[in-house]
Description:
The chain is of the alpha+beta class. The protein folds into two domains: about 5-100, no CATH class; about 105-145, no CATH class. Helices cover about 55% and strands about 15% of the residues. It has six helices and five strands, in the order ααααααβββββ. It has helices at about 5-15, 20-25, 30-45, 55-60, 65-80, 80-100, and strands at about 105, 110-115, 120-125, 130, 145. It has a three-stranded antiparallel beta sheet with strand order 2-3-5, with no helix packed on it. It has a two-stranded antiparallel sheet with strand order 1-4. Strand 2 and strand 3 (about 120-125) form a beta hairpin. Helix 2 crosses helix 3 (about 30-45) and helix 3 (about 30-45) runs antiparallel to helix 6. The protein is globular.
Amino acid sequence: MEPLTVAVATVLGKYAIDQGATLLKEAGEAAVAAARRLFQKVIDRLKADPAEAKNADRFVKNPEGYQTVLADALDDQLKSDPGFAAELQALVKEFEQARSAAITVTNTGSGDVFTGKNAFKVSTNTGTIIYGSQGVANVGNRNVEQTGPATGDG
């Protein structure tokens, strides 16, 4: 299965379960908007294919039960249409950037603060670290040292 297929299926699964309500708490409004556009593009594409229309409907009703079926159908579509693959790649990138920009960590003590693969050492007793899409840590006038890679994974 193509890496893009896995990425798209993962985002769609997170979005489809509750139409983005949980994702909104985890990743923010911009990420949910990108996930919604990605979801609609994939579902519309699959519904336009008579062989896949039922699977698209089943996925919408039961995302957890039909995620693998959707991923298989999507994988075939991506392999046969590079233009469609490029559109989805752009939407996945938009989602990831929006999700990355939404990561916020509150430090209640001095020391290392970890968010997934991102690590920051903060020399302060209070402050909020806002990790933006450009890998920026900002805690006002406090000393912040990025000690891990700026991947945006949280």
